[in-house]
Amino acid sequence: MKKEKKAKILKAGLVSGLLITMALTILVNPNVENIAEDVLTPQHEISKGEWKHISLPFVAEEPGADNDPGAGASGVLNSYVAKLTANWDANLTDVWGSTGTNGSSAGTDIPYDVNHELGVLVRWNKSHAYDTAWNLSLVRAYVNCSECDPAVSAVSATEAGVTAGDATYIYVHYYIDNSGTGYSIGRGDTVSSVSWNFEYYG
Asked: Predicted confidence band at 64 (pLDDT cuts at 50, 70, 90)?
């Protein structure tokens, strides 16, 4: 008799336990799925970088002197009209004219019908040209010159003379030379609207 009662109690307990387990499974499962979805589905897309225009300061200084863009700032130190033989990786000696103001005349005579190059010296800071190390693929330069022959429109400039001066800045020359053949101006013409444009990836 006692054995039969015990068996009935055990059976009832087992059935109750199974019913409770099933009810809990039904209640808990949707929440588990929601948690899994929250973990696996990103709530915020990671923003992808894009090329952004930046106006680098051209601060006019005395002729021949480098600009000072200001403490900690990226900026243009000088822009040049140089001989076709200019060595942008070394100290520039083959420069006909230079200016510290974007889109202005250097105020220097440049030989006509003699091919020349256009260049600029830029100082980049870490907010533009650095990820885990200095990285010049994050910055770039373009130039326009309507008076040059042939005319220049949004031509991507080549890097040269790269110097990581210290932990704060990296210096780089950008230049264009028309695939080695250079640009020229006619007699009495001027190169007064060389315009440099800069972008960084961020």
From this structure: low
pLDDT of residue 112: 80
Residue count of the chain, please give it.
Answer: 202
**Please, how many CA atoms are within 13 Å of residue 50, restricted to the half-sphere of its CB?**
5
Q: What is the mean pLDDT of residues 52-72?
A: 71
Q: Where are the beta strands (DSSP E) in the chain?
A: 51-54, 75-83, 95-99, 116-125, 139-145, 152-156, 158-163, 169-176, 195-201
Alpha carbons 176 and 148: distance in angstroms, whole number: 12
* Whole-prediction pTM: 0.69
Distance CA 197, CA 133 (A): 24
* Cα distance between residue 46 and residue 40, in whole Å: 14
Cis peptide bond N-terminal to 69, omega within 30: no
CA distances for 48 relative to 44, 45, 202, angstroms: 12, 9, 8
Q: Kindly calculate the radius of gyration of the chain based on its CA atoms and give it in whole angstroms.
A: 34
Largest CA distance in the chain: 125
Lowest mean pLDDT among 72-76, 170-174, 178-182: 72-76
Instruction: Return the number of other C-beta atoms located less than 10 Å from residue 170's C-beta.
Output: 23
